[in-house]
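Entry 14. Two folds queued back to back today. First construct below, sequence then structure tokens.
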Amino acid sequence: MTITMHTQKQRTIVEQDGTIRVTVPISFVRKGGRKYILAPEGSPSPFQPVRINEVLVKGIARAFQLKEEVESGKMESFRDIGRSNDQSHSYLLRLYRLTALAPDIVQAILNGRQPKTLALQDMLKQMPAHWPEQRRLFGFPQI
């Protein structure tokens, strides 16, 4: 089997000897010491098996827990929460931004249908407010 990277669209060619050649544009990504093969345009394959990423699920759960603590008045500030849990308030603020994720992204993560390469630390570094931009940045299909 030969892997050749192409930038054009998928195509199928039938050779004169009956050989069928299918060309699929792919890309290789290295994240967290692992190598991944991504489908065209970096989109995850819809046929990936369900894979619950506990770190992402816990991050989202913690973000909504923070939101509840602040909105209910249980805690007055992220500094108070950070002091009581021995966590940096700046980390808690970045985590809190996960509450602004597009609902379909949250649902996909909870169902284990997120892109393989998605990591919590990537989501905490940069969080666009616009949902289509979130989908593009984090590798989810556009709606």
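Second construct, same run, same settings:
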Amino acid sequence: MLIHAVMTSPAIAVRPETPIADAAKIMLDNHISGLPVVNANGDVVGIVSEGDFVRRAELRTERKRFWLLDFLTSPGKLADEYVLTHGRTVDEVMTCDVVTVKPTTMLAEAVDLMEKHHVKRLPVVSRGKLVGIVSRSDLLKTLTRYLPAPLSNAKDREIEAAIINELAAQSWGRGGSIRVKVVDGVAELSGGILDERERLAAKVAAENTPGVRAVSDQLVYIDPLIGIGIV
């Protein structure tokens, strides 16, 4: 899946000279937690988010250190912190090193970038200009479209076969020790597992199968050292 299929477009953006009070109001009014910052030419020059407004002099939430640590901290770092807690315009508090993606970037690559750089949103740029933004909320909206919906007309045997096939496709479930029986849409999981984590994984596999109304966990943990089942 490509970014252009899930991104929000057009993206709401602000200019570097925008007062932070205005930027905060835009976020609140539009129920968003971050804004790309673009210059007069439409180039992305930064991003500002709720996190940039957490340490503020007005809130008396400036970072406080033990006097010795404060003494050992470089004047430059202290100056940077002062700007962040007292700055009045977006360009004074924004993050300048912005990670961006293209509309043709694969969604999986964008998620990798979010995790790698610890960011919640990525501006989408085409030919150097902002064309959209993709955030965690966009991923959630897309996810809801793909989550399987229960199928009331699915037959028990078909549901049972689908769960067995899903378990067989997973490396943790290929041992064949998990048995499946479906009656009136209720999937009963029985048999033995050698790792407790397999219990939840098997339950999730069953829950994700269309037609399953409920899951009955009858699995027994077998201690691999002594070979005895523990209920």
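Quick look at the second one. The chain has two domains: 3-145, 156-230. The first strand starts at residue 34 and ends at 38.
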